[in-house]
Amino acid sequence: MNSNTTNRRKAVLAGHSGDYKLANSLLNDENEKVRGAALSALEKMGKLSGKILEKFIQDPSPEVRKRTIELLAKRPEKIPLNILDDKDSLVVETACWAIGEKENPIPQLINKLCLIADSHEDQLCREAAVASLGAIGSPLGLETILAALKDKPAIRRRAVIALAAFEDPRVDEALKKSLDDRDWQVRQIAEDLLDANRVITHVDIGPRPN
Asked: pTM for this structure?
């Protein structure tokens, strides 16, 4: 067993045993998987501070930044706006999801989600941004969601689900148009929403596994 595997195991066990000193020391490990496990361990024992999160959301490793965002999604600290400009698409995708988990995100975050949904080169980022806009339900995101109904099938599915969050004449019109979509899942979701007066079961869009 190599040292990275050993240290990662130590970090996991530290979280279960409440060994704060060990978990905290492993935050400085050179291996990103160990640092990520150490963050999780501190969170498990209730000793992960906002200061630590602020530091590790700027970690050189995309994997660590992604893990930090996942932890932030469950906490009161805000998601920093600049993380949506991350060079790693998986980090951006995870950040989009995390913002959708927060209550009352600031308008700047919503506007940035709209930009990502409109124009990000990675389809998965656009999809996550659309889903997040639906979870937030802010009127600021409606135009973007309606525009996403012209994107790839997976994004159109997210967009038609997202429409359930809005009360607007354009929503009913868009749902009726979606009944003729090329993708059968889009058609089915639109039909269900129209039949149920825009009530639909929540779809979990949690971050993808590493």
From this structure: 0.89
